[in-house]
């Protein structure tokens, strides 16, 4: 997901630059940078003035062919993310100063700084499951026009996270483009860093409690009228659907909101709260 790589960079040694104005103009065209920005670099009172890092192969070739006086190529080690946007919010990125930003890069920054000594980080993510989860979110964007979404896949027995997908995501190799555009929110992991109501994913928990308490069976029926009143508020089903008579299995399969209310109302509040506590709902997840 993340490896170290030697990246080409170009720097100037200002005392050795013979034609500063012409050199700045040429470099601006080759590197797609502002000419004034480069001129400032060429006028610095130093022997080493970095101009651009992480050059493309085309930029390196062009600079080698130009062979401009006082302009040199070098390499520096930096992070590279070969899977690009895959699990980007989980991974985070290494910033320009070499410090981890967001995700695991930030959380394990001190450990990864010493990665050259063998302190690599192995993840529980399954590549194929993660890829599929992100593909499903992209398809949801196309079919449902979602603004954002998350998918979590966990191994029940161990708690290992096999997939933690976010939409939209980003390419950490190009994080500066998002930062420059002011799109910083995309770096956050919606699963671990944002607050949201659990919504329909809470229905299986409610049903599990009611089943355990013997308040319902999979065959228990409920007649849906499309709306239910709670404290003066009207709760509707998705897309204002009215389903009629359905079993509890069907209520869960169709994610019928009014049916979930029907089930919860069969449970004393204290019993419901006690189960949620025992499920660990109010405890920190312990995720990195």
TrEMBL record:
Domain spans labelled Penicillin-binding protein dimerisation: 3-109
Q: Which GO terms describe its molecular function?
A: penicillin binding
| Compartments where found | Membrane
Q: Name one GO cellular component term.
A: plasma membrane
Coiled-coil stretches are none
Gene3D superfamilies in the record, alphabetically? DD-peptidase/beta-lactamase superfamily, Penicillin-binding protein 2a (Domain 2)
Penicillin-binding protein transpeptidase domain segment(s): 151-288
Q: Which UniProt keywords apply?
A: Membrane
Protein name as it appears in the record: Penicillin-binding protein transpeptidase domain-containing protein
